[in-house]
Amino acid sequence: MTKEHDLQNEIRLHVAREHLGTLFRANVGQGWTGKVQRMHLTPDTNTILLVNPRPFSTGLPVGFPDLFGFVPVTITPDMVGRQVAVFAAVEVKQKHGRVSSRQQAMLGFLQEQGARAGVARSVDDAARILSGEGVADAKHTATGRIK
């Protein structure tokens, strides 16, 4: 019997290989973070001592699917007037927060696939991204493309 994690990887690879869409793995759960004081890893036992430990959540709600993403769809005449979901991604930064090159690349990739994606430094920025209007940013033009 195939492990669920192995099946998820098989599905993601098949979807990519056959150009059926793009799927990402979502991890839902809770863990601990803090300063590592001591770490002892062996094949049998792993021990990590954290100073100032605090719980953190992945941020995804319980029940969120294992895989999520988008499928490019060409709108045909019989689809006009139908509601179609559009993938959206908002990278939130403070006024002077830096967008990493990896974040820029991901936003660019998502935009090229037709997703509404961009950097929001305010609630109004997020609303413009979701509306499809886009956001002007130091590294992105109004359409969200990297300069």
Describe this structure in words.
The chain has three helices and six strands; from the N terminus they run αβββββαβα. The strands form three sheets. The chain has a two-stranded antiparallel sheet. A two-stranded antiparallel sheet has the order 2-3. The model is unreliable at 138-147 (pLDDT under 50). The chain is of the alpha+beta class and 147 residues long. The protein is 24% helix and 29% strand. A hairpin with a 4-residue loop joins strand 2 (30-41) and strand 3.
Rounded average pLDDT:
86
Query: What fraction strand?
Result: 25-35%
Content-based structural category: alpha+beta
Individual helix count: 3
Structure, briefly:
The chain has 147 residues and is an alpha+beta fold. The chain contains three helices and six strands; from the N terminus they run αβββββαβα.
Keywords:
147 residues; alpha+beta; two-stranded antiparallel sheet; two-stranded antiparallel ribbon; 3 helices; 24% helix; extended; disordered C terminus
